[in-house]
Write a structure and sequence with these properties.
- This is 6-phosphogluconolactonase.
- The protein is built from eight helices and nine strands.
- It is α/β, with parallel strands linked by helices and 245 residues long.
- It has one domain: Rossmann fold.
- The strands form two sheets. It has a six-stranded parallel sheet. It has a three-stranded antiparallel sheet with strand order 4-7-6.
- The chain is globular and about 45 Å long.
- The two termini are 13 Å apart.
- 43% of the residues are buried.
- The chain binds 6-phosphogluconic acid (6PG).
- The site of 6-phosphogluconic acid (6PG) has 14 residues, from loops.
Amino acid sequence: MNTPNLNVSVDGPAVARAFADHLVERLNEKKEGPFFWALSGGSTPKLLFKILAEDYQDKVDWKRIHFFWGDERCVPHDDPESNYGEVKALLFDHVPVVQSQIHAVDTTKSPEEAAKAYGELMMQLLPSNSDGLPILDLNMLGMGGDGHTASIFPSNMDELLTDDSICAVAIHPESGQKRVTMTGPVLNASDEVAFLITGNGKTQRVAQILNKEHGAEKFPVTHIKPTSGKLIWFLDKAAADEVGY
Ligand code: 6PG
């Protein structure tokens, strides 16, 4: 059984810095050319975006990065719920990113049209693997308390973990909010998937998944295993507290 690659830090800020340093390492490894990074939404990445804006202005070669989103809420970009809007305010407005390399989901379209268009855009911009799936250099994902990731929830995982479209429309099980999400096969086509998970609210779920406990298969995160890429877990001590190794 291969032991998952864990990067455990003392607290949220330290997790953010560990990931930021990893981003710098990955950019250095891929010596030149574009770097394709998919972002996630929610609260955990906010700390990362703030720390990148404050302390990584000169450490990251921002002009090489193309930004994508693993999922996006179907709301206007200036809506407080927008994942794009969150990153723009916390990061893009503070570092020298190339505007034409920010590939946001076009939420002016209907959810169905936006999902189709985003999949086409990814196929146009990204290299693809032998299965014809687009390859991201780095797919940064979070995990909700129910074990969801991107907008692949327990309620829609049977469909979205095998969906052969690049992006699909998902509905948040509580709010009913429509979202565009990359599908499971696309997440697993990434060169590297990095989960950023912090806080004691996630301890039990992280333990169930990483300890391969009975019932873990009902959580979407359990099924995110890059086909040929790497998987790294950036955790704080609280989230990793009950991991059995
Ligand atoms: C979103 C995210 C979602 C998020 C998890 C974890 O659009 O909300 O992509 O998948 O990563 O819900 O969110 P927290 O980091 O806020 O717990």
